[in-house]
Structures are given as C-alpha cells and as structure tokens.
Amino acid sequence: MKAVVYGGGNIGRGFLGQLLFESGYETVFIDVNRELIDKLNADHSYPIKIVCNEYQNEMTIRNVRAVHSDHAADEIATADLMFTSAGVNVLPHIAQNIAEGIRKRQGRGLDIIICENLLHADKHLKKLLGTGVPENIGFVESSVGRMVPVMNSEMYEGNILRVWVEPFCTLPVDRAAFKNEIPTIKNMLPSAPFGYYIQSKLYLHNMGHAVTAYLGLKRGYTYIWEAMADAEIGKTAEGAMRSSAEALSKEHDKPLDEVMRYAYDLLSRFQNRYLGDTCKRVGQDARRKLAIDDRLLGAIALCNKHQLPTECIKRGIMEALDYL
Fold first, then answer.
1. 259 and 211 inside one domain
2. 149 pLDDT above the threshold of 90
3. Confidence (pLDDT) at 83
4. Residue-by-residue DSSP string for 23-58
5. Final residue of a structural domain among 174, 191, 208
C-alpha cells in the first residue's frame, strides 16, 4: 500500500508519517526542499522525538521516500491514499499538480485527507481543483491536534529530518466524506457528523492557543509554556476555553464533562516545555486568525449564540489587534 503526503514538513513527517508507518504503508512525501528530498531518499527513514515534561522517547519512521513537487502527478496517479499537509497558503500552488495526478488515475477513485488549519478545507481544495473532478474522489476534512514545534539547529541533533512532537497522536477524520473504502490507519478516528471535531479544533484548541500567544507577546514572553506559567494569562486562557467548551457542548449536544476534559488536556499540553513552541509562531498570520469565522471571532460568535461570556476571548482579540 502506498500513501502520498503532499508536504514533507513537521506535520507531514512528525504526525502523518508515524500513523502511516505504524499502519504498514509506504509513504511518499512530495515537497520542494531538495535537501530534505535527497536525505529522505538516502536514508529511507527518519527519527521523531516524542517529548513532554515527564519523558522523552525517540522512534524511527521507515519505508519512506520523497519526490519533488514537479513529479507529484505520477505519484498521485498510483497512490492508494493521499494526504495534504502543505499549508493553507500553499494549496493554490499545488492544486494543478493534484488535478493532473487525478487525471492520470483514469477514473480510479482516491480519497484525499486534508490536514490543513482551515474551516471547510474540503470545499476549498475541491474548488481549487476546478471542474471535472470525478465523483469517486473524496475530499476528507480532518482535525490535526498534534502540536509540532518549529525546529532549530540544536533540536535537529545533526539530522535535518528529525522532528520533535508531543505524545498526543489521534487524527479524527470525516467518515461521511470518503468516497472509497475507509482505510484502517492506526489512531485515525473516522467520525460523523464531523462538525464538532472541526469546531473544537478551531474554537477550543486554536482559540486557546492564540489567546495564550497574544497575551504572552504583550508581556514579552518567548515561549507558550512561559505564558502559561503567568497566573493571569493562564486564568484568561482557561476562562476563554471554558466558555468555548460550554458553547461547543450546547451546539453539538456533547456532554460538557467530555468537552471540558479535552479543554483541560489542552491546557496541560500548552505547558509542554520540551516543544519549545513560541508565542511568535502561534501568533503569526494574525490577520487571517482574526477573520470573521476563524478561531477568535468564530469562537465569540458561537458563545454569543448560546449566551455565554466572552470577555476572556475578547482580551485575546484586543492583544491580537495590538500585535497587528
């Protein structure tokens, strides 16, 4: 079995690569970074370091190779499954290659699992591909919750392929969007209806992360864990996430204790010092993150709909505006 991952960056290697290796797939990464491509093809493996405040483990991901984006269509033509993890802003630049790969399949079905931080990512990618996409091509939304930091030279430890990741390793996907047989992949969770997972990722995880980052930047903190150690910031992030959790519970008829367990797990994961995640990285692209239906204003709207307090979320919005 062969899976194509369009995007060999930190999420591609540090999350999807692990799921696919542990499920018996050959993984082909498509990227434009020649150094990364050459190293993957030389080693056919790479290390990921699983880190948290309590422990650190390293594992080796095998049965991998890579091709340049110029050769994407040929790999897509023979894939059993495809993922994208290229980044929202990159999707328009790779859509033509994906469309060409689909044409080369000559009518054979394919499901594309879209691992991008974007509401309605399935509709967005389908629109980018244009008309004539066969009905047996599935555009499957996912909810990528694993946190992977920006790597620096010290973290690489002499290997540019090494990725540090947190222990969390579950990928919810939209069961109803598959057009072909749903593959069995370790830690992939096909679910329907999928709206709760999309909104909880954006309005709980991403929103809480953003509030922490913008308040942390205001106070001059470098790392997310430093910001979380500030009692006032931690209290504000918790208040914002509690409001959003209550709104999500009401919106999707989910037990509140279940949503709150997820919220408190996130608050604990934000304190992971070994990820070295920075307030600047989490707060980057603030204009997009302040869009009407994105993590901050979208969470406000959901809380307003269910008449829940929004003051803590608003504090994050004000600091995001200052950051802009």
1. yes
2. no
3. 98
4. TT-EEEEEES-HHHHHHHHHHSEEEEEEE-SS-EEE
5. 191
Distance CA 90, CA 95 (A): 9
Same domain, 181 and 225: no
Contact 14, 48 (CB under 8 A): yes
Full residue range of the structural domain in which residue 146 is found: 2-191
Helices (H), 130-189: 153-156
Q: Model-level pTM?
A: 0.91
d(CA 166, CA 126): 31
Closest C-alpha among 207, 197, 182 to residue 301: 207
| Mean pLDDT of the 186-194 span | 95
Q: What is the CATH number of the domain that holds 294?
A: 1.10.1040.10
Show which of 162, 191, 220 is a domain's final residue.
191
Q: Please write the tens of the pLDDT for every residue from 45-94.
A: 999 999 999 999 999 999 999 999 999 999 999 999 999 999 989 999 99
Residue 130 CB neighbours (<10 A): 10
Same domain, 130 and 63: yes
- By CB atoms closer than 10 A (0-12, 13-18, 19+), residue 264 is middle
Task: State how far the Cα of 44 lies from the Cα of 38, in Å rounded to an integer.
Answer: 10
Summarize the confidence of residues 164-177 as an average pLDDT: 97
pLDDT at residue 307 tops 90: yes
Q: Is the same domain home to 185 and 205?
A: no
49 φ, ψ (degrees, to nearest 5): -110, 115
What CATH number is associated with residue 45? 3.40.50.720
pLDDT averaged over the chain?
A: 96
- Under a CB-based contact definition with an 8 Å cutoff, are residues 15 and 169 in contact? yes
**Do 210 and 291 sit in the same domain of this protein?**
yes
Q: Which residues pair with 173 in a beta bridge?
A: 142, 190
Task: Report the C-alpha gap between 223 and 124 in whole angstroms.
Answer: 32
Percent of the chain with pLDDT over 90: 94
pLDDT at 117 over 90: no
